[in-house]
Amino acid sequence: MLRYPVSTMKATRRIPFVQLDVFTAHPLEGNQLAVFPDGRGLDATKMQRLAREMNLSETTFIIPRDEAEERERGVRVRIFTVEEELRFAGHPTLGTASYIYSVTDRHVVELDLDVGKIPVRFTRDADGVVHGEMTQRDPEFGAEHSAKAIAAATAVPLEWIDTSLPIQTVSTGMAFVMVPLKGLDAMRQLSFDQRKAAQYLAKTDGKFFYWVTRETVQSTSTLHARMIFYNGEDPATGSAAGCCAAWAVRHGVLASDSPGTIEQGLEMLRPSWIHIRASRKGDTVSNVRVGGETVEVIRGEVTI
Q1: Confidence label for 8 from pLDDT (cuts 50, 70 and 90)
Q2: Pairing with 299, which of 27, 123, 140, 258 sits 20 to 30 Å away (CA)?
Q3: How many domains, in total, are found in the chain?
Q4: CA dist 28 to 22, 72, 197, 237, 274, Å?
């Protein structure tokens, strides 16, 4: 019989976590998120190492504080990818707020993020499905990029790029370069050199590319999207979706205050449905809203 050595390491702490699927009402779809409900006593190094251990697109840490302070400033939350801490990200905001809603029944959950206070409002439909909608920061429209420069930086064929729409950097807390492609065939074949793309982005005002097309799989969708970055591919990118909503409203893809839906994650078999709205008055876009559903799939503990 095999005998396994008994570890002599002493566990110092058991840390509960919840794993959610975000931008879906169905388990094992959408974008995965780990939420640690009590991050007190964890420094940034420990949080980063835990995020690497979870190995998801993002992991969040709630830092509880007294009720009066939370009412005034919001619930303090820190967001980590496997590589770095983020000032803002969309699916972690929605997912973390959804967890807080599930344990408090607050219909408006305000998160205190590094970009400021982000409110998430919750409604429940007749079937009991809970929908959350965050209001992101007003967008900042940055540089426009040439299709030739994008093609050269990524090796994506120039003829795939839809030049009827601008390629533009937009930020509602994180800066994405919106790159429109001509259709689903181009989206399905999308592949590019991450190193060269990062070198290009480092010289611009954008952090990541967000690839979109007006051709969709579902007739009820407005746009089909993909976001490929250093951790692979993101099934749903709520921060980019807010930028995309602002870009779509500014450039006539979506009417002011009209609801739209971004489908994402279909290529990686994790379909996600991101609901978007934004307001436009003249050249000004504001009131950017991004919403969807969230479902809990795992509860557990990490021992460190």
Answers
A1: low
A2: 123
A3: 2
A4: 10, 36, 30, 16, 16
Q: Is the predicted pLDDT of residue 2 greater than 60, yes or no?
A: no
The verdict on 245 and 271 lying in the same domain is yes
106 belongs to a structural domain: yes
Q: How far from the centroid of its chain's Cα atoms is residue 175's Cα?
A: 12
> Do both 100 and 160 map to the same domain?
no
What is the pLDDT averaged over residues 4-13? 64
Q: How confident is the model at residue 265 (pLDDT cuts 50, 70, 90)?
A: very high
Do 133 and 25 fall within a single domain?
yes
53 is catalytic: no
Together in a domain, 150 and 283: yes
Residues 20 and 111 grouped into a single domain: yes
Residue where the block lists tokens 């078999």: 269
Note whether 145 and 123 are same-domain residues.
no
Range of the domain at 60: 14-137+294-303
Catalytic residue (choose from 29, 53, 58, 263): 58
Q: Based on the domain organization, do 150 and 220 belong to the same domain?
A: yes
CATH number of the domain where residue 256 is located: 3.10.310.10
